[in-house]
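The instructor's notes for this session suggest beginning with a concrete chain rather than abstract definitions. Hand out the sequence below and ask the class to guess, before any prediction is shown, which regions might be ordered.
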Amino acid sequence: MSIIDFLKRLWYFLKRSWFFLTIIMVLLLFFLGERPSKIAAIVILSLTIVGLILQIVLSLLQLRNFKTYLESYNRIDDVSIARGLHNELVTVRRQLYEMMKEEKCPGMIILLKNTYIYYNSKMVDSLRTIYEQDKDNFNETVHKLLSKQGDLYKNEIQEIRKQLEGKSSKTREKD
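After discussion, reveal the predicted structure:
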């Protein structure tokens, strides 16, 4: 393992656990130190709380930016999103997984061959219209539509059809 890989892993670890490490340090200073150490512990704790609030605000802004970026493309895969937003692929996949799990995204997310593909709300409306109007020729029509957007996966159209059938049955159950 090279030094660069080690530093990346260390940075990733510190980025994810800085709050807990700081709390441990503050508790040690507060309970094991003298009066100046207790004052330092209180100052460090205050700065940690401010840092945590900033981290929460930044993550909310990044999520908003993420969703805006997704809606600007009709169809986009996770690798292209990571490249476009200059994020790690793992982070992008985790965000897409969370959006897919919550079912609160305006578009549609499908998972094929360990790749997430996102369709924005306009594209989903177009696909739903095609599905409702012409179920017999759905595959051919969608293939023509999506082949303009880039390379298609083998089972992509079948997965889209499954999701549209699932969503249409859910809306019928609500009515």
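Then share the key points. Helices lie at 3-32, 35-71, 78-85, 89-102, 121-133, 138-147, 156-174. The chain has a mean pLDDT of 82.
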